[in-house]
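Following up on my earlier thread - several people asked me to post the actual chain instead of describing it. Fair enough. Here it is, all 214 residues.
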Amino acid sequence: MGLIRIELFATLDLVGQAPGGPDEDPVGFPFGGWQAPLLDEVAGAQVGAAYKGTDALLLGRRTYDIFAAYWPHQGGGEDSDIATLFNSVPKYVASRGRPDLSWAGSTRLGPDLAAAVREIRDRHENVKVVGSLNLVQTLLREKLFDRLDLWVHPIVLGVGKKVFDGGEVPTNLTLLEPPAAGPKGTVYLRYGLAGGTPRTGDMGAPDRGAARGD
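Reply from S.P.:
Thanks for posting it. Predicted structure:
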């Protein structure tokens, strides 16, 4: 069984909407492209490393349309490695409509999204979910992910679609490696899905379990 890996860029208040440009998702959101002034070589190298080994993309409709309009037309330059990767691997699209799937290797998922994602996980070793906040909400709610890579940027926007938007279920995560900060203040966090549900306790009470030797 493969791994479903979510890759997300977010602000300190966990807004993940339209980081890449003003035209990504402009309706009612004035901060499209907020990530660009905060990019640095460290974050760029982290993103490049995170994409290595990807053998399939799992995308929401809006992110797919943005990618399909851009990546097939990229050749040389600093984006060449990612362009080669994205253009060559299968693309699976979650959409209730009938999107144009002219980008080579693209397939629309069926109405049972959870079953379709489980099938993709069985078919591929390393599936990447990039952006696609509506799809991410479903994956978080159904716990249909294995890794969450989150780049947290040092700004607060106060408006916009959030990474965690109220539909999630109680979930434990494990930090897979120490946080890494870039020169512009962006912090890279890598989490893995963990079992069980979050526990509670009393910070002012002694550890009764430890006293009993549990």
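The beta strands are 3-11, 56-60, 91-94, 106-108, 126-130, 147-153, 172-175, 180-181, 187-194. That should answer part of your original question.
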